[in-house]
Amino acid sequence: MNDRSGMTVIVKTVVRISASLILLYGAYIVAYGQLTPGGGFPGGVILGGAFILLCLAFGKETAFRKLSVNAASVLDSAGALIFLGIALSGYAWGVFFLNFLNKGIPFHLWTAGIIPLCNIGIGLKVGAGLFGAFIALTAFRVVKKGD
Amino acid sequence: MMLIYVLCMILFAIGIYGIVVKKNLVKIIISFCILDYAVNLFFILIGYKKDGIAPIMMPGQDKAQFVAQTVDPLPQALVLTSIVIGLGITILMVAIAIRLYDKYGTFDVMKMRKLKG
Amino acid sequence: MLLIILLIFMIAGSIIALETKNLLSAVIAAGAVGAGVCICFLMLGAPDIAITQMAVETLSLVILIRATISRDLTHITAQREAGGLVAVGVFMAVFVLFSTFALMEIPPFGKPLMTVSSYYVQNGLAQTGASNIISAIILDYRGYDTLGEATILFVAVAGAIVLLRKKGRKKAEEKDE
After folding, report:
1. SS3 letters for chain C?
2. Cβ distance A94 to A82 under 8 Å?
3. Which of A104, A124, C73, C95 is an S-S bond match for A111, by CB 3.0 to 4.6 Å?
4. Are residues C69 and C95 in the same domain?
5. Rounded mean pLDDT, C79-102
6. Selected residue of B90, B93, B110 to mutate for chain C interface (largest C Cβ count, 10 A)
7. The Na+/H+ antiporter MnhB subunit-related protein domain covers which part of the protein (chain A) (predicted)?
8. Residue C177, C-beta contacts closer than 8 angstroms, at least 6 positions apart
9. Which domains does chain B have, with CATH numbers?
10. Is B64 within 8 Å of chain C by CB?
11. Which of C55-69, C73-87, C106-120 shows the lowest per-residue confidence on average (mean pLDDT)?
């Protein structure tokens, strides 16, 4: 590879294999949050960590090609709006945060009404927000040396 | 078994000591993280039941036994959100520290005061 | 017993993190404290919190190292002031007094009160359908808390981005001129 940005070839090869597995693990943690340990918060942190790993290993241009800053900002707001929208739509049935969907059979994936949808919203919000904050900490830095 | 509570409070006190005495901004951020860990750990310690199991039901588990054995789930739910808030606060503090470093060229609080005049 | 050993390890790690001269080793010692907290959570019957703590710990370590390692000043010079030590002494006295009162009041280790949460544990699966009682609490019974927490996280991230961006400040300065 002629690409000089980022770390060495060994790190890049390992990250190329493992980043998708980390993304898959984060998605599993988010989706099974109502059945097993996990949920929106840890899953979102793991999803954000996968992109931060890409950004550290390949340099920020490659990471921006996968997920640009504007896309991260849009995803962040979209997650917050999904969560707030679910909470507000409880008003149609009476009260704020009403669990209005069908509860389903226990111990199956699509159960527990609004809880999986809220988990997805929170996961998007936390992951995209952390990635955006990391980009802000590293890329937007104002470097004024020599004074 | 009060010793565990006392040790957790010692950890909290170390965090407070670091925030008050240390002059380096990075050390202050680290002390804040330690304070955060101590408070979270204290919540979980209060909710622990002896020989308890995690508050997650498994298929085919007896409900009466689960209710009798499980640890307190309410502190865990509060701490789960508190940990992620701690990460957000750490990010915000690091951002402020980097901004101050760019302005003054140092992490030392005392030198910043002198430079400002 | 193992918990006490872990807690002593964490106290030693935090003292090292505060007293060492090198900033990089201070950050790494703080990471060791976080990993100890994660193992404590796992032993106390909280796998949810352990997963979250591990991920958050890794991320905050990366962020702290990334923020400090490129600075040229990694060694710090120790200097103490008498005022800070006096303040910390007064605070410690008050803290020891109040924590003694608190230790008399709180339930002993291993016997939680569980006044509200016994209701959650008994009716959680039937009322919400989620077998993970913690998910049922944070997203159904106490959804307001989670909404406020999401707001705090949003504000913190937005504040960090606003503090560190370059474009807005330049435009504002040009307008002033």
Report:
1. CHHHHHHHHHHHHHHHHHHCCEHHHHHHHHHHHHHHHHHHHHHCCCHHHHHHHHHHHHHHHHHHHHHHCCCCCCECCCCCCHHHHHHHHHHHHHHHHHHHHHHHHCCCCECCCCCCHHHHHHHHHHHHCCCEHHHHHHHHHCHHHHHHHHHHHHHHHHHHHHHHCCHHHHHHHHHHC
2. no
3. A104
4. yes
5. 80
6. B90
7. 10-130
8. none
9. 2-48+64-111 (1.10.287.3510)
10. no
11. C73-87
Comparison of pLDDT for A47 and A110, the residue scoring more: A47
Exposed, middle or buried: residue B72 (CB in 10 Å: 0-12, 13-18, 19+)?
buried
- Return the structure tokens found at B42: 């204290």
Q: Does A29 touch chain C (CB under 8 A)?
A: yes
Q: What is the pLDDT of residues B30-61, one digit of tens each?
A: 899 899 889 988 888 888 888 878 887 777 77
Claim to verify: residue C13 and residue C93 sit in the same structural domain: yes
Which domain covers residue C99, as residue numbers? Answer: 1-73+87-106
